[in-house]
């Protein structure tokens, strides 16, 4: 959900599309190894990112939030959980107590937040948020401008930070960024018998795919020759499917809207993207249950050795490489998402972060918790799990660590991320209707994948329903 989803990892002002110039400006900051100033600069003796601790002024050893209880509704699972293990340190430093009253995946959390905010029944101070989601309930979020100083924010990559802004108000502090890359099984790709057979069947050498045509060939090849595995997979429902489809449409040279906000996802690029998904499923190259898969399911399926190559978020890398967790540890690598015939590499991107609710009665303490969770120390620990930091100083350290490690796979991993961030970073349409749009579109995509309708008919029907929804919402 996947950001700099963002899986992507995602979203900046109230525009429905981000200009390429703005994206490149953002990435030049991320990838230029810019040094933060003052306390946000990595310590030059230890090369460790400086901490931007949530600890507030502790004069006379007085804990600033003694007696305060903060409630939080957070995203859980996967690489999210490790960060929450640091919360007792925040409690010890500040005297506050933190209760996580809800934890679920981003889609379930989004549904809960919309219901709770609409019914005025939200009883939490801090929420996990996402650049794709926050615009829907921005009226229920507290502007952070007066809770975070310029010094608090100076180490964050500006364009990613701006992804949480609307009408000059900041509503989300980014924890991590996401962008799609492709995971592939090195043991399968390096197998000599596979190389020989593939060359015989397709006329070119077997290597990690650089184009979508190669990806499709290889997915079908491994399905036929992989001893019971599926060649590939995609998350098959919710915004997870919509986003994957969106990046394929981009790769085929299209978009969801034109410059006048007219729906165009049912034009040639969309039909080609949907046809590829249908063809892969029909060939048995994707699991039969894929329309029920979200992020955890696709990651576990690859980790169990059931898939050859697929699109994934980098945050799963460390879990994948743990032999206690998966069967593919040490047997996979990553590659930049393969390009479509347009020359565009898929790059669904975004940011995951935290917000303070407008209903919170403890807003300074809530802001302090977010400062702690997004501190340089915590973000550096997060990066060890494969998450992409949103602080410049932490990026400097991560890139330095990768080069110093001598680990060829780790060096490749961060080189791939650097290239993807620099050249492929693009968000979904930056509209408040993104999730309602997704809720209309993904059932049609499921029907297309399963063969219940043709790509053209399914997308035409989806486009009509989306146009109707957009008009009803005033667009």
Describe, in short, the structure shown.
Keywords: Signal. 42% of the residues lie in helices and 11% in strands. The chain is α+β, with helices and mostly antiparallel strands.
Largest pleated sheet: 6 strands, mixed
Q: What's the Cα radius of gyration?
A: 22 Å
The CATH architecture of the largest domain can be given as: 3-Layer(aba) Sandwich
Query: Class of the largest domain in CATH?
Result: Alpha Beta
Low-confidence stretches: 1-54
Beta-strand residue fraction: 5-15%
CATH fold-level name of the largest domain:
D-Maltodextrin-Binding Protein, domain 2
Cross-sheet strand order for the largest sheet: 2-1-3-10-6-11
Number of strands: 11
Biased composition (Polar residues): 44-55
Organism: Gordoniibacillus kamchatkensis
Protein name: Sugar ABC transporter substrate-binding protein
Signal peptide: 1-34
3D architecture notes:
The protein is α+β, with helices and mostly antiparallel strands. 42% of the residues lie in helices and 11% in strands. The chain has 19 helices and eleven strands. The protein has helices at 20-31, 81-84, 87-94, 106-118, 150-153, 158-162, 186-189, 192-202, 212-225, 238-251, 268-282, 295-303, 317-320, 363-373, 376-383, 392-405, 408-423, 434-450, 455-472, and strands at residues 69-75, 97-104, 126-130, 165-166, 169-170, 173-177, 181-185, 309-312, 332-335, 351-356, 388-389. The strands form three sheets. Strands 2-1-3-10-6-11 form a six-stranded mixed beta sheet. Strands 8-7-9 form a three-stranded antiparallel beta sheet. α16 (392-405) packs antiparallel against α17 (408-423). The protein starts with 19 loop residues before the first helix and ends with a helix. 52% of the residues are buried.
């Amino acid at each position: 959900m996947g950001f700099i989803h963002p899986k992507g990892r995602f979203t900046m002002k109230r525009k429905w599309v981000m200009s390429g110039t703005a994206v490149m400006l953002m990435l030049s900051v991320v990838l230029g190894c810019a040094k933060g100033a003052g306390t946000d600069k990595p310590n030059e003796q230890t090369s460790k990112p400086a901490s931007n601790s949530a600890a507030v002024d502790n004069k006379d050893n007085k804990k600033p939030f003694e007696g305060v209880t903060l409630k939080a509704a957070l995203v859980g699972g996967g690489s999210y959980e490790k960060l929450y293990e640091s919360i007792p340190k925040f409690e010890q430093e500040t005297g506050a107590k933190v209760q996580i009253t809800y934890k679920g995946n981003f889609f379930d959390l989004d549904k809960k937040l919309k219901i709770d905010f609409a019914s005025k029944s939200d009883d939490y101070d801090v929420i996990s948020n996402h650049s794709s989601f926050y615009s829907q309930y921005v009226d229920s979020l507290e502007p952070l401008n007066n809770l975070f100083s310029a010094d608090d924010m100076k180490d964050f990559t500006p364009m990613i930070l701006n992804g949480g802004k609307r009408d000059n108000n900041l509503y989300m502090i980014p924890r991590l960024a996401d962008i799609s890359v492709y995971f592939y099984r090195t043991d399968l790709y390096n197998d000599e018998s596979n190389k020989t057979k593939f060359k015989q069947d397709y006329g070119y050498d077997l290597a990690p795919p650089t184009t979508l045509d190669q990806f499709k060939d290889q997915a079908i090849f491994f399905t036929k020759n992989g001893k019971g595995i599926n060649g590939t997979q995609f998350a098959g429902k919710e915004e997870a499917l919509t986003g994957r489809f969106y990046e394929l449409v981009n790769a085929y040279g299209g978009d969801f809207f034109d410059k006048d906000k007219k729906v165009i996802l049912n034009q040639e690029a969309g039909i080609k993207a949907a046809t590829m998904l249908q063809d892969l499923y029909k060939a048995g190259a994707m699991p039969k249950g894929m329309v029920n898969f979200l992020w955890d399911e696709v990651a576990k399926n690859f980790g169990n050795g059931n898939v050859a190559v697929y699109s994934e978020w980098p945050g799963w890398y460390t879990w994948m490489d743990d032999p206690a967790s998966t069967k593919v540890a040490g047997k996979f690598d990553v590659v930049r998402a393969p390009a479509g015939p347009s020359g565009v590499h898929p790059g669904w991107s975004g940011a995951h972060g935290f917000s303070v609710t407008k209903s919170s009665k403890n807003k300074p303490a809530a802001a302090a918790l977010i400062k702690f969770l997004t501190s340089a120390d915590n973000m550096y620990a997060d990066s060890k799990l494969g998450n992409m930091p949103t602080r410049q100083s932490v990026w400097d350290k991560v890139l330095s660590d990768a080069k110093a490690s001598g680990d060829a796979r780790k060096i490749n991993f961060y080189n791939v991320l650097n290239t993807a961030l620099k050249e492929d970073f693009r968000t979904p349409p930056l509209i408040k209707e993104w999730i309602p749009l997704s809720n209309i579109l993904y059932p049609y995509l499921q029907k297309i994948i399963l063969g219940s309708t043709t790509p053209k008919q399914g997308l035409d029907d989806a486009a009509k329903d989306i146009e109707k929804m957009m008009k009803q919402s005033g667009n």
